[in-house]
Design goal:
The complex is a heterodimer of chains A (913) and B (503). Chain A is α+β, with helices and mostly antiparallel strands and 913 residues long. Chain A has 34 helices and 15 strands. The chains are: A alpha+beta (913), B alpha/beta (503). At the A-B interface, helix 25, helix 27, helix 28, helix 31 and helix 32 of A face helix 7 and helix 8 of B.
Chain lengths: 913, 503
Amino acid sequence: MKRKIYIGICIGMALMAIALLWNSFKPNEKVDFSTQIKPILNNRCITCHGGVKKNGGFSLLFEKEAFAATESGKPAIIPGDASGSEFIKRLKEEDPELRMPYEKPKLSDEEIDLLTRWIDQGAEWGQHWAYSLPEKVDVPTLTNEAGFTFEESSDFLQNNIDNFILTRLESEQVEPNPAAEKNIIARRLALDLTGLPPSTELLKAFESGALSYEALTDTLLAQKSYGEKWATWWLDLARYADSKGYEKDMGRSIWKYRDWVIDAFNRDLPYDQFTLEQLAGDLLANPSTDQLIATAFHRNTMNNDEGGTDDEEYRVATVIDRVNTTFEVWQSTTIGCVQCHGHPYDPFKHEEYYKLMAFFNNTRDEDTPSEGPVLKFYTPEQQKDVDKVLNWITENGTIKQHKTYKDFMQFTEPVYKSHIFQEITNGSYDDHASVVLWDDGNCILKNGYTNNSGYVYLNYRSHYDGTRMTIREGDANGPILGQFTINKAKNNTTSQFPIKKIDRKTNLYIETQNNAAAKEANIINIYWIAFLEDMPGQDKPGWSAVNKTFLKTLNTNMAVTVPILAENPSYMQRATQVFDRGSWLSQTDTVQPSTPESLSKWNTEWPKDRLGFSKWIVDKENPLTARTLVNRIWHQIYGRGLVPTIEDIGSQSDAPSHPALLDWLSLRLMNEHNWSMKALIKEIVLSGTYRQSSKSTPEMYQRDPNNELYARGPRVRLGAEAIRDQALAVSGLLSDKMYGPGVMPPQPDGVWQTVYNGAQWEESKGEDRYRRGVYTYLKRTSPYPSFLTFDAGSREVCTIRRIVTNTPLQALVTLNDPVYLEASYTLAKNTKVADDVDESIAQSYKRATYTDISPNKLEALKALYEESLSEFRENEEANVLFLHFDDKPTPELSALTVVANAIMNLDEFLTKA
Amino acid sequence: MEDHIQRLIQEKIVRETQAKTRRHFIKSCAQGMGGLALSSIFMGCDPLAKPMAKKTVAFSERDLNPLATLAPPFAPKVKSVIYLHMAGAPSQLEMFDYKPQLQKYHGQDCPQSLLEGKKFAFIKGTPKLMGPQAEFKQEGQSGNWVSNFMPHFKKVVDEVAFLKAVHTDQFNHGPAQLFMHTGSARLGRPSIGAWATYGLGSPNQNLPGFVVLTSGGNTPDAGKSVWGSGFLPSVYQGVQCRSKGDPVLYIEDPDGMTRDLKKSTIDAINKINKEEYAKYADPEILARINQYEMAYRMQIAVPEVMNINNEPENIKQMYGVEPGKESFANNCLLARKLVEDGVRFVQLFDWGWDTHGNIREGSIDLGLRNKCGEIDRPIAALILDLKQRGLLDETLIVWGGEFGRTPMQENRGNKKMAYKGRDHHGDAFTMWMAGGGIKKGVSHGKTDDIGFSGIEGQVSVHDIHATILHLLGFDHEQFTYEFQGRHFRLTDVEGELIKEILA
């Protein structure tokens, strides 16, 4: 019966194929630009006639360019007249000097025919599929006639995803695998959702039928470990690390952002909100502390503290990184190319890059070592002071003043950082974010705005008592705005000094005098200078006390901070200019913020800032955002994207294996799941496609090496963190402690070595040694070595894909790293069954792999056990050395540890099958 | 020499044939799954093919072993590269670029015309010119200039080709080192060694293909990214071999475990993995079986090659090694041992060349002289030792820093500095190459009278990369890797062969 249907399908398919072929050669059939023409242009023409090179004055990147006059004075393509078009003539030309593609093989007759008909039909220019999204996608219906009748079909069809998958399988005549066994699918599911194998209780409940598959899924999604696992993925995109990068690579306190990401996943913050808060949380009305922490997404950029580097150069580098990262993370688009020239393949123009950059170019951070602005976290006691000040302003002032003072107490902006001071005489910029002045020293803050303030705020360290500071307007001879005395202050201090009110941008001349100091002796380090609108209620009793409290908060030392985004006030706005060929030193036209023309439309109600830009990103009309997320979550689960090039969805990307499914899931994510990532993940793992067994045959790997058809379940090596987490989990060592500063589990001595940086890897104590990998301290120039070996990156820039490798160095980690030996020992100890070696080994194996041991495997491990046992019995000293974790090491336990270590090195342990 | 090239071409042909037949062999092996000849040196896929191939019919040898050797597209001149990087940037004006005129201008203000539009790391205002702080002599048959800071170098001066007018657009250590080793001043690109290992694999399967050795007490300013793999698979990144602790991390068996027991452990693992392969047919399992065998062999081979104690006394003296310590001399000897054993790319970083004059060690006269003393004998020894073993013809040695130093004396903070020093300078500095495919005893490029700018034969960092790739058998414009929709090259969109120094 089955065979008959197959034959039926075969004949049907053959007929369809003939029909298709005939159609494609039918002269009147309309040629489609996006699917038939654009790929030819991209593969064969655009390298020389595109965004970078426009040989002969001819480019095929934009519609306008393609039909414009070339160097010959005439357009190369004349719509409706292929035979009159130079473009076609050159393709057919016999003279190799004239024929195109130049010095490359001739186009095939089919390709030339397609191009000819396209021009004859009017050469209609179309849009690439990636830049538009259908309004609705129908789920394919599977009729009995068309469908497979294999026994497992009812098993396979679990939700709508399977209809899409099965339709393709049918057309390729491939049968899906049966469902995976319960223990296997439970392990796969738990690893995918939580990054850890399931607890024994959960597995039991599922295996016994007490818990349905869906209930198991819900339980796992509700576990805190879900957030830890998916945060690991997001932190790669966010380039999260615990150090600043570059030469000195000093530590950075930004772990609150990592914790925010974990929480955001766990509370299933909808992706649109998740996006808004990270890109522009600071611009939301009354942002919460959490929303400010979220903006640290873009403070994960590196900060260059190397002596002699130009802060502005690295600030610009940072802004460029933010633009590039935003497009890589949310739009699957490599916009970085456009920095220097028009995009070689995608429809973006050079100046469009800088229009995008204009959205990001007005934040306060300026590559200073302090990394300001940093968000402060007051203790409840300290917070009382903050509230006291804010209450006073609520009573006596405006909403705007309230925001000014709240911001200043929260993250100390806006301030003029001293690296912008100019014309320093008798002093210097000391390269550690301060201007140093000597006796008779002076410098100028150009174009500063004093906000009509009666006070100047100064952050400094002072090495002498009695330094006289004078601030003048203009220059050395200008009118005095303020004159005051500064005394010794060893630590950074913020003080308030009265000045004369002026309400205009002007040059501020700052000078210092101290006769007590030796010539060329540093008398003061100035870090920043600020002017705030005066605190209201100055005429009321109590003002002085509140002002004193305010100054006290400014001088509170913080144990924990996190760098955040803060927008420039209007008087500090930077203009954004186009960089000629990408060089920041040669800036040309000034541009205003806007999004690329070829992408989705801008809604005029949105503000022209980062907030408006974020709204554009998560607008339902933007086809790339949802597709990108669906594709990458799919990739996390299957090890392969529906569009295999997960970095790129555009004219250079691979075609989607299941285009309709990608669109259907994208629309569903936005319209039905309301951007819930948990709902999307749940939908994917509930499918029969996901639940298939990953067993296969060499023939099937030949047929479909990358599992593009999904006729088998995913089989992927675990990620770096998951390999260690799993070893700790199955052995019973894993701590479930969440949050907090990065921890330093054991690593070999001497791995950390950075110039001008005394920081040390201080091995964590107690349970901090056994925390999940997401909490491991990540120093960019020297990441945790075993993670690096298993393909985790150094997070210097956005990592979209960890390329999975398979190397001998990985074997050395799981065989020899003390972390894995301790885990092996603990696993062996916890699964040891007295006087029953076979059972001990079987238990150990099952605990690790969630599978019953086969006789062959038991035999292999038993032999290893016997050999170890005799070795350790013979050599007492070796036994003690090997099992140094144990007070009373026995040769039996040593031998079981060797076996457990072998188990932790099995492919089935390292792989999600 | 002719023989040598013939040999390399012959090797290329043989390997290509092997590659074809081998592919069939593996294919049938995978289908039938008998035992795999794991000790074989596999030949593999084409690195010029798209990394995300849409339809690979059969998995290739490279899937099993990503370091399997590949033949380069053109006949190579060398098999291995030893790259000696003086991190911090050595002063060309005290070592190789003799500027008698600069002595004449010593103490005078630097002309404004040179300073206009220029940016320096620390120099402020108008600095003073400073004459050479070393004495120079013409050495060897070639008569090339070498200073008295490098007394041993004269023995090998006729082996090297100087590049006197190298320039870079970076003048801070981190970005300049990244630029010098990855072709980009920003992070994220693969290093030269990673490109080489990716393109060619490594002949010795028991050692990493790309080894990094550091000395001078610090790793380079730009950190491990200078030997990173960027967007290439991480297997191609440099493996740092250390002189203290395990030479390679986790290479040592745990205390109390014998080699035999480790062998049995790996046998048991592989036996079970083979059973797993029968069930899942995933070629990754075969690769893993292979990698575990290799790991075992590496555990023997790495400590062996990293042990310099067994070298004859005259060789130890020749280099001036100090066993047990971290030194540039030790690393030079190790570099020879590594290329002798078939390692593709050996990268040495020696830290401590940043001679600003702010501290004694960083002074241009005293500090630099000491640093030169640390490298002079070992470098001469390395070249002579390779030569006497017949290895110099198939090895390329590259020497240089990330930039050069100013003809002006540094005046940091507008103050007179404690010692004599020079600031960072990228406009013109000296590098040299020696070995296979390189002309002997030549000097290419010239700087102006004070050594500020190149006036003749200027070469860029990309040109140097193009030349290194050429010697390894690649056309730098064709050797690409597709990443995020773009074909990336080590030389980006630039680079020209430095033909003048090619033999």
